[in-house]
UniProtKB/TrEMBL annotation:
This is Nif3-like dinuclear metal center hexameric protein. It holds the Pfam family DUF34_NIF3. PANTHER family: GTP CYCLOHYDROLASE 1 TYPE 2 HOMOLOG, NGG1 INTERACTING FACTOR 3. Belongs to the GTP cyclohydrolase I type 2/NIF3 family. InterPro entries: DUF34/NIF3, DUF34/NIF3_sf. Keywords: Metal-binding. It comes from Yanghanlia caeni.
Length: 257
């Protein structure tokens, strides 16, 4: 069975995702060091206890996630759920890889790029071919969808992601230009409105989104934080499997948020 050293994999991931280039509010890359050789990786959206337990049960050597650990502003003490998660990783020599904003932003493997594929959006591109992005951290993408009403776009998003989204705004509005940012990017709706698109798609919703949608005429779709961020980590896992020939398994531990 193929294997790769933890150090070599960590370096390849850092280079591929250009982790040094993006300022983030958590560390990106190898967050907890485990055994020094990797044959089998479990990927998932979040490094929850359930994902760790599943990795231990499968005798995996590493987990690789979008939502890792050690967030800025979190309480640093090792108590409660945080202690249990870290204790599980250490007790089983499990490597923990986390990639947050670098995985959102990657032009091919990233969450925004992969969501666009799923939803059939054609990203607008700069002269050099890179996708147009804007807003905080340059994380919002912009492009075109097949023209339809906002209600119809909501139905398409729902069937592509397997979950009914929250759709705010005029259901009959015609939509052909869209902006999107996966996860909890409801605060970036104003940047999307300023860019002039017909609708904005993200994962979660907050109270102001309702009023913004009604008062600006820009449609808003909250399609699920977890649901919109399942695809980047899968694409990254597939890239790792191709590069090193090791076993990579995605576990979709569902989260309704
Ligand atoms: Zn997220």
């Amino acid at each position: 069975m193929n294997q790769v050293s933890t150090r070599q994999l960590a370096e390849w991931l850092d280079t591929t995702l250009q982790t040094q280039r993006i300022k983030d509010y958590c560390p990106n890359g190898l967050q907890v060091e485990g055994r020094d050789t990797i044959r089998h990786i479990i990927t998932g959206v979040t490094a929850s206890q359930a994902l760790l337990d599943a990795a231990v049960q499968r005798n995996a050597d590493a987990i690789m996630v979008h939502h890792g650990w050690f967030w800025k502003n979190e309480n640093p003490v090792l108590r409660g759920t945080k202690r249990r998660r870290i204790a599980t990783a250490l007790a089983h020599d499990l490597n923990v890889f986390g990639f947050h904003l670098p995985l959102d932003a990657h032009p091919e493997l990233g969450n925004n790029a992969q969501l666009a594929r799923r939803l059939g959006f054609e990203p607008d591109r700069n002269d050099d071919g890179t996708p147009v992005n804007f807003g905080p951290y340059d994380l919002v993408w912009r492009g075109r969808c097949e023209p339809c009403t906002l209600a119809e776009l909501g139905r398409r998003v729902g069937s592509a992601l397997g979950r009914e989204p929250l759709v705010l705004g005029d259901a009959n509005k015609l939509v052909s230009t869209v902006a999107w940012c996966t996860g909890g990017a409801q605060d970036m709706m104003e940047a999307a409105i300023d860019s002039g698109v017909d609708a904005y798609i993200t994962g979660e919703a907050s109270e102001p989104n309702f009023h913004l949608a009604n008062e600006t005429g820009t449609g808003f779709i909250a399609a699920g934080h977890h649901a919109t961020e399942r695809y980047g980590i899968q694409a990254l896992g597939e890239a790792v499997a191709r590069e090193f020939g090791i076993q990579v398994e995605f576990l979709d531990l569902d989260n309704p948020i």
